[in-house]
Amino acid sequence: MKTGEKKYTELSFLYDISKELQKVKHIEESIKPILKHLADYCGISCCSLTILNADLHHVILEEYHGLKSEEVSNLRGKLEKVSKTIIETGEPMLLPKMSHTPTFIKSSRDLVDFSYEISMICVPIKAAGKVLGFFAFSLEYYNDISFKLEFRILNIIGSMLAHSIIATQENAYELALLRQENLKLQDQLNQAIINTEIIGNSSAMQSVFELIQKVSKTNATVLLRGESGVGKELIANAIHYNSARKDKPLIKVNCSALPDTLIESELFGHEKGAFTGADGLRKGRFELADGGTIFLDEIGDLPLPTQVKILRILQEREFERLGGSKTLKIDVRIITATNRNLEEMITKCEFREDLFYRLNVFPIYIPSLRERRNDIPILVNHFIAKANKRHGLKIKRISTSAIDLLMMYHWPGNIRELENVIERAAILSIDDVIRSNNLPPTLQTAESSKTKMEGTLEDIVANVEKQVIIDNLISTHGCTFETAQKLGITERILRLRLHKYNIEPKRFKKVSK
Questions:
Q1: What is the pTM of this model?
Q2: Which residues lie closer than 8 Å to 18 by C-beta, 6 or more apart?
Q3: DSSP letters along 271-285, please?
Q4: What is the tens place of the pLDDT at every residue in 401-427?
Q5: Which CATH class for the 215-365 domain?
Q6: CATH architecture assigned to 3-173
Q7: How far apart are CA 399 and CA 351, in angstroms?
Q8: Ranges of each domain in the chain
Q9: Cα separation of 146 and 127, whole Å?
Q10: What is the pLDDT of residues 272-299, one digit of tens each?
Q11: Which residue among 206, 332, 406, 505 is the one 20 to 30 A from 237 at the CA level?
């Protein structure tokens, strides 16, 4: 660097660097302006600052000045080689002619688009004997150039930056610990969920797991929605057993399975003599769930009078047994589930609107199996292991063709149907492998059932057309007029088809006795 090329004095330059550091809270915000000041002061073409991880020496922050994006990637690769030497020695590196340096085999033009020879300086930033990072900059090569001033300037700036870099390293370390802890907690949650037999890696199920994690630690009322067979009961289990109430009762009630005449007695209990056959006091499901959780499945099937009493429990946390006058207080968390459209039921006055809003505090939608097809392979493996244990089988795997059929099927019965299909197929297997022919006929394709039609499209259409004509001739006892009418064509067109396929209508005439 030539003295006449400096834009300002060393003191004013260092003052500007100091001001940049004072302006911001985090060093990453000041690196760009610092590098620009450095380039202007030293008259250099490009420069960079790299900050390393305190222990592993991985790059945690890097910034470049005076380079295009494609040039940055080239320089990054070369600096990786330089950084190893700097970390090992802790000493600065001088590359007088980059094109003559073994580390940079190619000419300097593959680094930056220069038409002249360039030199490179790399200066470590150190504190307490540890390398925190390093500066690197390039400038035009001169035979008589001295880099003493540049080394001194970079060492001074490095000392000014050291404290901020250490803080950055500590923040990066804390962030890494937080990420690690977060992953650990996620693993623990997923393990807890897996223990309740909820299986799924799809993004749709990951969203459900996140909602379970958020709501489990609260006492919020949960409404589980989704088609029949998607596993709403398992979700209720996961919420309860991941909550503070996990050591208290989880009482499950299928509202659709209880007759209207007994449902209130089942839910709220009854006193002795409350009705014919009430020979003694009986505690209801809500009372049994006190301190724990009650899961009301198929809540949409509750009769309207019972809905009123459920609403009172949600609002006041109190009720009376059937035939009793004593008001009982309870502490119970309510989880409900339905596969019905409650909003539509409200418009038809089949479900109370005020109850809906009380139940819909924290809704969770459980996706159908059609919406999470990527989970089918792991669900299949789970159900195979379950079938092996239940029936003493030794199924080792499922064939690729069978998996393909499972992935194409529309699964109206969802996971429950898939479990039944796998259990049946496991029992039918004769070689410890579930194959496509072990699956139910509803899942079979023409190819897997060996009923695929061979030939060109024209041949297949012709065969189908011929069979349709024959079927109708049989039903009309060979009457061409009636057959043409049934097929929606003229009798002339029918006769042309009969000639084409060599069909004799007489063969289908009814023989009179």
A1: 0.52
A2: 160
A3: -TTSSTT--S-EE-H
A4: 888 889 888 898 999 999 999 999 999
A5: alpha beta
A6: 2-Layer Sandwich (3.30)
A7: 47
A8: 3-173, 215-365, 369-443, 457-508
A9: 26
A10: 877 777 788 889 899 999 999 999 999 9
A11: 406
